[in-house]
């Protein structure tokens, strides 16, 4: 029987590696050939891409140009560089508006999520008139914001409104919900939760519908309590939908102008002035286009940062 005459080290070096012999260039992926079908698909897509670029790139570029000028609605003004951004970041009004925007966003996102998730879990049970209950719960989201804000003004705006009268009948005095700065901020945040929880409820309900009931049956057989089922099964399984809803609701809250402006106008004493309301006042009331657009771009930068953080959480959930 023939035996190899190569020494052991040489034989080890010549051990098959699973790769085809040849130069390093042979290991590269083959180039994709452009087929008529691919070219046709590209030609169909190009007009839509160009249209989207025109609809988004032009306003973005125009706004960026306005943010570095001291112009108004009628005149572009002189180039001032980053002075508008510096003035905004060193302004007391900007940081007070940023503080309220943060509170408004945190309460709006997590308050509406807690209420929406709770109602979505409730709707999974056998409740009487569940279909009618769902429709009624969607009304705060379906009704136009002008109608909702008008109704809330009627409920809380004056001492003769129903809610202050109810507080007075209970011996708690007659609070001025929209005249006191603290109460006005609380009222606006509660109003935001009220108009936003149907969206969170629908997002949570769609995520819960994809969870297999067999998982809960197995957990109950293993002796898991309802609290353990919620924390170790429900929340992890709906985590992806939760992060997506948080991203969307954060954008909705930061950019929410009508909810605040129609209810309080940003008052009293600027207690409910958010960044978007401050930007509106700068542009359309003070006619300072540069500073208003600069505030808007600062808001955009924060929203992009928050979205990136939450998208990373979504990727972690997908790879888990």
TrEMBL record:
<feature type="transmembrane region" description="Helical">
    <location>
        <begin position="176"/>
        <end position="195"/>
    </location>
</feature>
<feature type="transmembrane region" description="Helical">
    <location>
        <begin position="100"/>
        <end position="123"/>
    </location>
</feature>
<dbReference type="GO" id="GO:0005886">
    <property type="term" value="C:plasma membrane"/>
</dbReference>
<feature type="transmembrane region" description="Helical">
    <location>
        <begin position="135"/>
        <end position="156"/>
    </location>
</feature>
<dbReference type="GO" id="GO:0055085">
    <property type="term" value="P:transmembrane transport"/>
</dbReference>
<dbReference type="InterPro" id="IPR035906">
    <property type="entry name" value="MetI-like_sf"/>
</dbReference>
<dbReference type="Pfam" id="PF00528">
    <property type="entry name" value="BPD_transp_1"/>
</dbReference>
<protein>
    <submittedName>
        <fullName>Sugar ABC transporter permease</fullName>
    </submittedName>
</protein>
<feature type="transmembrane region" description="Helical">
    <location>
        <begin position="38"/>
        <end position="58"/>
    </location>
</feature>
<feature type="domain" description="ABC transmembrane type-1">
    <location>
        <begin position="98"/>
        <end position="310"/>
    </location>
</feature>
<keyword id="KW-0812">Transmembrane</keyword>
<feature type="region of interest" description="Disordered">
    <location>
        <begin position="1"/>
        <end position="30"/>
    </location>
</feature>
<keyword id="KW-0813">Transport</keyword>
<keyword id="KW-1133">Transmembrane helix</keyword>
<keyword id="KW-1003">Cell membrane</keyword>
<dbReference type="InterPro" id="IPR000515">
    <property type="entry name" value="MetI-like"/>
</dbReference>
<feature type="transmembrane region" description="Helical">
    <location>
        <begin position="292"/>
        <end position="311"/>
    </location>
</feature>
<keyword id="KW-0472">Membrane</keyword>
<comment type="similarity">
    <text>Belongs to the binding-protein-dependent transport system permease family.</text>
</comment>
